[in-house]
Amino acid sequence: MSSPAAAGCPEAENALNEALRDFDAALKAVPNHLAALRGRAHTLSELGRHAEAATLIERAMVLGGRATLLADRALLRERAGNVAGARADLDGAIALDPSNSWARGTRGRFLQVEGEHEVALADFDAALAIEPEVTSYHYRRGVSLAALARPREAIAAFDRALRLESTVAQVWLERGRAFEALGHDGPALASYERALRLDARHEASLSRRAFLLQRTGRVEEAIAAYDRLLAVQPHAAFGLNNRAGLLAGLGRREEALRDLDLAITLVPGDGNALRNRAQLLLTLGRNDRALRDLDRAGPGRDTGAWHGMRGDALLALGRPLPALDAYRAALALRPQDRATLFGFGLAQEVRGDRSAAAAAYGALLAVDPEHEGALERREELLPALGRSIEAWPSRFAGLLRSASDAYEREREAVQDVYRALRPQPVPVSPAPSNPLALLDVALALDAFDVPRLIRRAQFSIGQPQREVQARADLATALLLEPENPAALVQRARLNFRDGAYAAAQADAEAALRSEPRSVEALFQRARALTVRGQLSAALKAYDDVVAVAPANVAALLNRALLLQHAREYDRALADLDAAVAANRTDPDGWMARAALRTALGQTEAAIADFDRALSLDARLGQAWYGRAIAHQRRGDSGEAAADFARARALDARVDERYRAFGVAP
Fold it and tell me: Distance (Å, rounded) from C-alpha 578 to C-alpha 542?
């Protein structure tokens, strides 16, 4: 008998037989080689030769290592279907060696299957204390926590499993279920979608996602989700049933009917589908088929609704007496149901008992005084019964309601005029929200929300107290989505700050493979090339930035510096003109253009630009220093001396910083 691993796979069976020959050779050389005995036993078990495997384990136990061998035998017994024997072996292995994490974890799994989740948790905790990096222990711990209605702890356990191995769809599924248990539908949906990115045919995730969209009223998305599920599993009767309900709600009744027909063909005794089809058939006027479905389905959980639908079908088929019986049965369970009370009245009318019909409509009006159908039918019946005067209270109530409605409208109109004439209070602007605080709250709920992780990192870079968090956020985002261009760009920023310019360039280029027109990625690549001394490539890279974003001031300023270095002064000046035009409130643009104009001998224009820069920020030492040079070149030594003094008072290294603005021709 072949094992599941080898069954139907000749290559796997051949590999196992080859391994068996190797173990035989080892045991021929060293007859009591413990590792070879264990390996041969496991291979035999994989091949379905369980009795031979058990004999080998017994032989090995004589040699020593009983705790490890008991754990081995537990696995072999489980494969052979002897779960009780496997459990006993695990108990023995743990008693002999409490530090055997595999035995702990496996026993925890057995306990979990048996529903003993508290005890299973103790085993998983013990296993993790020994081997904290085993993904399956964290995952199974989360499953038990979820079963014990401790969803927050379950999510934390699933997150720990995913940090170790983020590509297991089942873990994302269970994480989504835990979020649903907490009532957090957004993170639940995100978890199901991440499971489906890993395995587009993961049926449980397809089902949960579709149901969650349906439950939250996202009808069109839910229908598309059921379409996707049914493309993978065409015989999922519950999916057909649920999609039918959504289609019917949108008025797409024939499509809904096709779904229900197929669901019932697949599961002929599905009472829920039969009752749903009966309800739909009633709306389509196919009452005889509806009645057959109802009788075939039986009452189900909502017996009152079933009796009511039977009454509707019988009445529509012209059978008022059995319809009355059905309505009475429904009203015994739901005495104030409006549809049933109205149907009961109609059935009494059809059988000719006007007095009973009027009483039924009266009972309905006691529940719903504005029920139009009951008002109309009762007003028509009462005169024929010689009870016209009884119609007047309801008519008078209707008149009062109309008058009251008109009065309310008039009153609101007067109040609107009064409010318009009153002095209006000055609106108080709400306090600006702290984006980082909002992101912290959201990520405390769902630590794997990749877009928010990237945004928090983006806000945090440059804030010393947040730098560690930014790095952790990007590491998590890229663990989950290694090619996410936004995360790669933010990591490029961090690498540049760290002086890892080659890594910054590599991250930017990786981001550009996904988003070739990403301005931020193009910019990060250009500045990494610049500091690495690849100036021609950097100039071309800035050309790429400006081609996508012609008004990007930082790119224009940086390209202007490279052009100055290449002695292309006219092109550099054109870039600085464009930078100033793009943002007239940025002093850097005015200052950079002033420096180049000074170098080109355009002294008057340079001084005007320096003046404008200083009007925007008088603390800029470089602007004072540059204007001093311009004054000096114009021959204004007194003004130059004053500007030099002011510059050095603001910045002791001002001359060095000023040289960064350009290269003198």
Answer: 14
pLDDT tens string 331-385: 999 999 999 999 999 999 899 898 898 889 889 888 988 888 888 887 788 776 6
A 10 A CB-CB count for 62 gives 9
Between the two ends of the chain, the Cα-to-Cα distance in Å is 88
Sign of CA dihedral 642, 646, 649, 651: negative
Provide the percentage of residues in the chain whose pLDDT is more than 70: 90
Q: What is the total residue count of the chain?
A: 665
Write phi, then psi, for 137 (nearest 5 degrees).
-65, -45
- 18-36 in b/e form (b: 16+ CB < 10 A) is ebbeebeebbeeeeebeeb
Query: 499 — alpha (psi -120 to 50), left (phi > 0) or beta?
Result: left
Alpha-carbon distance values, 573 to 448, 561, 600 (Å): 47, 10, 10
Quote the CA–CA distance of 89 and 477 in Å, as a whole number: 42
Dist CA 117 CA 113 (whole Å): 9
Q: How far is it, in rounded angstroms, from Cα 289 to Cα 236?
A: 24
Q: What is the mean pLDDT of the chain?
A: 89
- How far apart CA 417 and CA 151 sit, in angstroms, is 54
From CA 603, how far away is CA 300, in angstroms rounded? 93
pLDDT digits (tens, 9 = 90+) for 155-202: 999 999 999 999 999 999 999 999 999 999 999 999 999 999 999 999
- pLDDT of 526 strictly over 80: yes
The amino acid at 185: D
Q: Which residue has the tokens 């910045």?
A: 651
Type of residue at 338: R
pLDDT digits (tens, 9 = 90+) for 26-59: 888 888 787 888 888 878 888 888 888 888 888 8
Q: Is the dihedral of CA 551, 553, 559, 564 positive or negative?
A: positive
Contacting residues for 660 by C-beta, under 8 A, at least 6 apart = 561
CB 295 within 8 A of CB 272: no
Whether residue 294 contacts residue 282, with contact meaning beta carbons closer than 8 Å, is answered with no
Residues 6+ apart with CB under 8 A from 348: 320, 324, 354, 356, 357, 360
Q: Within 13 Å of residue 105, how many CA atoms lie on the same side as its CB?
A: 19
d(C-alpha 218, C-alpha 629), whole Å = 67
CA distance 87 to 406: 78
- What is the separation of C-alpha 240 from the centre of its chain, rounded to a whole number of angstroms? 25
Token pair listed for 415: 């109040």
